[in-house]
Amino acid sequence: MLRDIQKINKExxxxxxxxxxxxxxxxxxxxxxxxxxxxxxxxxxxLYGGIERCVYYLTEELVRxxxxxxxxxxxxxxxxxxxxxxxxxxxxxxxxxxxxxSRYNWLLNQVRQNASNFDIIHDHFDFHLSELHQIFxxxxxxxxxxxxxxxxxxxxxxLSYEFNDFPLISISFDQRHHHGxxxxxxxxxxxxxxSNLYKFVKNSKAGEDKYLAFLGRISPSKRPDMAIEIAVxxxxxxxxxxxxxxxxSNEYQNKINKMVEQNKDKIEFVGEINDKQKNExxxxxxxxxxxxxxxxxxxxxxxxxxxxxxxxxxxxxxSVPEVIDEGISGLLFKxxxxxxxxxxxxxKLNRSLVRQTFEKRFTVEKMVDNYEDVYYxxxxxxxxxxxx
Length: 388
Known about the structure:
Keywords: Coiled coil, Glycosyltransferase, Transferase. By secondary structure, the protein is of the alpha/beta class. It is built from 15 helices and 13 strands.
């Protein structure tokens, strides 16, 4: 009886929240929003590319909600918004830095010249453009500007100090610890993905077909070597879906190749995969293994795995403890031996609860609700300043 009452109360609470959100959205005016994406890859990326993927989901949901959105990105981008571009993704051109700078310079000038046509300019360039970005920010009316920091601003310390009064959004609270407390973080918004992007898989592969999944880059920061060591010690198969990254030296690549060859009865390298392939790859796995070696601000693959119902076994570093509810959506470890213990306990986690955690915390709807709140609050502040 008590459970029935609690269930009814929960359903009524959800319905009330949905009703209030609809009423709130009806009262709010539709905004003119510019989204600025890096030019290295198209939006969305065909395979690897966390920032571009996030910008895509955000842009599509904003358009769906009736906002007028202009996306500044490479010309191969797929979008429901108006696209402004001046060439293909830079990763394909193999051109010198001077060409890349000229492309970015043109795009930034377009944004600056048309700034009055937008209520909000949302910058995802991540301070990686150095002097070009600096000039752009200096000459832009910052009142309508929002900057999401996707990486670590320790990569560009001079910018993080010089522009500490710009409104910044972090993608995890841990990310802020690496910025010296100087930037003006006005909100923390976790990434989200469409709830229908991946189907929930109730049961993983069992018996001899049971495996761990590694999805990421072949690079020291992602530690596929640790994933291999844990899988071998736990006596479980490991499937590696990965791309080689520029930070991955030939020496490290050779190390991974050698480890795979020495354990080919347990380790399988499947290369890069797309979203459709991810669903099967992640959904059928006992768990995703995420043994990163750096303070990653937000691991998109974690919530992709959770969307499939697959728990995550992750190294406790960076934002990982924020994103994973330990004992519910995954297990944390620090050493290889702890990782082995986590693998052996992974089948005790309830995959339905893993999916529910994703739906509660990491959908695109949740992410865009939060971004809309930031947009409207920023515009309200501008209006109040004008009145004064």
